[in-house]
């Protein structure tokens, strides 16, 4: 039997900061474990020393397999100094520290440990497919590549668990994301005669100020969550003694079911007026599963028993690889469920509670057993 906590520690010690990623050694380590347990393994490269891993076992004509999904890349350490070694995977006071412990190597370790435990019993059952991606932290690069490849490399799935950090509380989906770039144009002039120019930074600043007051959810009743907007960056000008003739700014909008991209872009255009124009850069749709679906309801009941998880269906504020995978798999019921603490994702001194990883291994084992009927 594989110990999910020890496996998490091993995965943390692979330094898979993205960029550049370097996920291939970590993927090959997991692939070797799974292949030894009887899984068929496929690697798909996506650049120097980077790879996605797909592992399969079992399979029947009566029911599609259950998919577990996770990523091996992690975000940079940040500017603030860590008080623990970010790749030593030390345990103290019931917490496993390290970059990726919460997001999301603890979740990956838990479902791999569960899958290996069940492997000897999965022949002639619906089986499992494990999608372990690279490049999730920079926009789901790995699964987008897999979904776009010819030959249906992802195969099929009848339901999916994405083991992102939820403190072992099942979530029925996640918000989508819309990334937009704003552009303000002006006329340059010497900084000593600003009246001869048209300052693009001032225009951008006016628009950003209006965006701060924009409430995309005002007067609306959404099924789950509310849309949010954040201006993440603002850049303009070429030097201090010139009137800037261009300024750009980036907008992060988190989407929920019930609001459309066209609607948001129209609101932005209205706010921009003659000061700025907007270009859509990326869009990943929201994911939502019906809480009354029998499989979804069954997992909720299981997690109440294992982790005392609350019963109110809700969605994650962040987005995940499910944005691409649910579409590729024909929109099966999908849950976001993993041992990490969402509040610790991308944080200095990131940690995951050891007990959560142990709970997740038990939960994933039972979820897979019930799906496969063993």
- Measured between the Cα atoms of the first and last residue, the distance is 17 Å
CATH architecture of the largest domain: 3-Layer(aba) Sandwich
Largest sheet: 6 strands, mixed
Measured as a percent range, the helix fraction is 25-40%
CATH fold description of the largest domain: Aminopeptidase
Give the CATH class of the largest domain.
Alpha Beta
Descriptive labels:
single chain; 374 residues; alpha+beta; Aminopeptidase; Alpha-Beta Plaits; 2 domains; six-stranded mixed sheet; four-stranded antiparallel sheet; 9 helices; 15 strands; 22% strand
What is this structure, in a nutshell?
With 374 residues, the protein is an alpha+beta fold. It has helices at 4-12, 24-36, 101-118, 141-148, 200-212, 261-272, 294-307, 322-328, 354-372; strands spanning 40-45, 51-57, 66-71, 91-92, 95-97, 128-133, 159-162, 173-174, 176-185, 228-236, 246-255, 277-284, 287-288, 334-336, 351-353. It has 2 domains: 4-174 and 286-372, Aminopeptidase; 176-284, 2-Layer Sandwich (Alpha-Beta Plaits), CATH 3.30.70.360.
How would you explain this protein's 3D organization?
This protein is of the alpha+beta class. It folds into two domains: 4-174 and 286-372, 3-Layer(aba) Sandwich (Aminopeptidase); 176-284, Alpha-Beta Plaits, CATH 3.30.70.360. It is 30% helix and 22% strand. The protein contains nine helices and 15 strands. β1 (40-45) and β2 (51-57) form a beta hairpin. α1 (4-12) packs across α3 and α3 packs across α9. It starts with a helix and ends with a helix. The mean pLDDT is 96.
